[in-house]
Amino acid sequence: MSTMTVVESIRRTLDEEMARDERVIVLGEDVGQSGGVFRATDGLQAKYGKSRVFDMPVSEAGIIGTSIGLAASGLIPVVEMQFLGFTQQAFHQVGNQLARMRYRTRGSLTMPVTIRAPYGGGVRTPELHSDAFEALFAHSPGLRLIAPATAADARGMLAAAIRDPDPVFMLEPLRGYRLVRDEVPDGDHVVPFGKARIARAGRDVTLIAWSAMVQVALEAAKLAAEEGTDVEVIDLRSLVPLDTDTIRDAVKQTGRVVIVQESPLSGGFASEVAASVANDAFLYLKAPVCRVSGYDTPYPVPHLEDHYIPDAQRVLRGIRSTLNF
What we know:
Strand content: 15-25%
Structural class: alpha/beta
Number of helices: 13
Order of helices and strands: EHEHEHEHHEHEHEHEEEHEEHEHEHH
Shape: globular
C-alpha cells in the first residue's frame, strides 16, 4: 500500500496506463507542459512526448469531437476538462455523438474515451467553473458515470475507465484533490463499475452519497453517533451503472434513508436513488426518504459557497428528521 492524495493517485494511474498501452493518449487544455490546472498530468508530456500528451484550444466541443475521431481511429483518448462547469460547452458532442456511437453503428464502433473533470465546488473558483451536473450526464444513455471519493477508488476506477471499450465520464472531487489522502493498493488495481462501497457500517439510518459528499456524510455520522444514532454510510462510487442491490439491502436493514448530493434538489441524481428505494424496498421504509442537497439556484459565487454546499450539520438535521418521523 502507498498513501497518497486523490490527485496523486490520478497522476500515477495515467502514467501507469500510458506505460501499459501505447494507444492511451492525454489531451485537454494546459495538460502538456503546464501539467493541467490541478497538476494531474504533471510530467506526462516530458515522459511520453507531445504526440501522446498535448494541449487543445479553449474549445470543449472541439476537444470531445477530436477525441471521438481519435477513438474511431484506434486510439484511447483520456480527456481532461478543466472544470465541470465548462462541459456545458461540449454537451452536444458528449450526449449526441460520443454516448450514442455504439448504438448508432449497431455495435460496430466503440468509443473508448475517458473524460475526467473536477466535480462540485468548495475551492472558491469564479462563476461557471464549479458545478454539479451529474444528473445531466446520467441521463445520457451509452455513457458510464463514476464519482470516486477516495484516492484508492480514483486509481482503481480510472484504470477501469481507460480499459473500458465504451465512454466513461469520471467526476473527480474538486475539494478532495489534495484534502483526501488514503491508502492506495500497489500493483494492478482496478475497481469494477456498479458496486457501491460501505464506507461506515450502521443499523439506524443509511446515508447515501458520492464524491466529496461522502466525507460530509462520514462527518455527520460521527456527530449522530454522539447523539446515540448508529449511521451507515454508502459511497455509491458508480452512478451509471447504479448498485441497486446494495441500496435495497441497506434499506431492509435500517428502514431510514438520507441521500446527500451537492447539486440542486430538483431533478438531481438523488431523485433517481430515491426512486430506486421506492421501487425495490418501499415496504421496508419506516420514514420518507430524505434528500439533503444544494439549492435550486445556479452554483453560487465563491463567498456564498459555504451556505450552498451541504455540510455535516445539514445532514445531521436530515438524520434527525427521519428518526423523528
